[in-house]
Amino acid sequence: MVRDSKSTSIPVTLEALGGGKGTESAGGEHGKGRWGLRLADLTPDVRNELQAQASVHGAIVEDVLPGSPADNAGLQRGDVIMEVNRQSVKSAADVAQMLSNVPNGQDALVLVWSQGGSTFRVLHPAQG
Predict the structure, then answer these.
(1) Closest CA to 69 of 128, 126, 31, 17
(2) Residue-by-residue DSSP string for 41-59
């Protein structure tokens, strides 16, 4: 990751989707979530590693399944989901719950903090 023209290393442990301590958004069969991402709580240590200000809250993206709705929306490891459908979230469980409540076939709007800035992203559900 590059910040202010300086390279910063952020240690990340990769695990198979559905394994480990991360919360998968919206559950799913055989360890594959509907939206294709695995989340974890934004802890003080992770916040410091990301150099995120105290106003950043929510869940950190630990992994994104290639070709998934999350991947297609441009989500990446290290992004922080702060809102789902314009409702603030405080934890990975909040994000997972809110994404699981999105009706099948409908998009989800998420506010994402990434590398010092926040943007809205739309998760389009997988077809079929």
Answers:
(1) 126
(2) E--HHHHHHHT--TT--SE
Six-digit token string for 109: 């709007």
Strand partners, 38: 24, 63
Q: CA 79 to CA 37: how far, in whole Å?
A: 11
Instruction: Please answer whether residues 75 and 59 qualify as being in contact, where contact means their C-beta atoms are separated by less than 8 angstroms.
Output: no
Instruction: Give the type of residue at 50.
Output: L
Number of H helices, E strands in the chain: 3, 9
Q: Which two tokens stand for residue 69?
A: 């709705």
Write out pLDDT tens, residues 80-107. 999 999 999 999 999 999 999 999 889 9
pLDDT 10s digits, 11-30: 544 444 444 444 444 443 32
Instruction: Identify whether the C-beta of residue 89 lies closer than 8 Å to the C-beta of residue 58.
Output: yes
> pTM to 2 decimals?
0.74
CATH number (4.10.230.10, 3.40.50.10440, 2.30.42.10, 3.40.50.11440) of 21-123 reads 2.30.42.10
Q: What does the pLDDT look like over 53-68, one tens digit per residue? A: 888 999 999 999 999 9
